[in-house]
Write a structure and sequence with these properties.
The protein has about 90 residues and is an alpha+beta fold. It is built from 2 helices and 5 strands; from the N terminus they run ααβββββ. It has a single domain, classed as Structural Genomics Hypothetical 15.5 Kd Protein In mrcA-pckA Intergenic Region, Chain A (Roll), CATH 3.10.290.10.
């Protein structure tokens, strides 16, 4: 499954187009390397997303087949680390 599809299917990023832009803007890494939206996601890989206000690192547990219900999202990834970024005061 494509990285941008995975990110949107498991609801880490709302829409696939937003996930694609996140990859193109180089804020998504897979196994420590900047990843393109078309990168194939495999079980066991680690994905880091560096959002504006936080960083999230997950481990892929399974690849979804089709739409994922809210209550089933936890079956597809495990949250390894999440950091909230402090806002800089001017």
């Amino acid at each position: 499954m494509r990285l941008d599809s995975f990110l949107s299917d498991v609801r880490l990023i709302k829409r696939r187009t937003q996930a694609k832009k996140a990859c193109e803007n180089q804020i998504v890494w897979v196994d420590g390397k900047i990843a393109k939206p078309s990168k194939e996601v495999k079980v066991g890989q680690r994905i880091l997303v560096d959002f504006t206000s936080r960083k999230m690192e997950i481990e892929v547990l399974d690849i979804p087949k089709g739409n994922v219900k809210n209550e089933e999202v936890c079956k597809f990834f495990r949250l390894l680390r999440e950091e909230r970024k402090k806002e800089e005061l001017l």
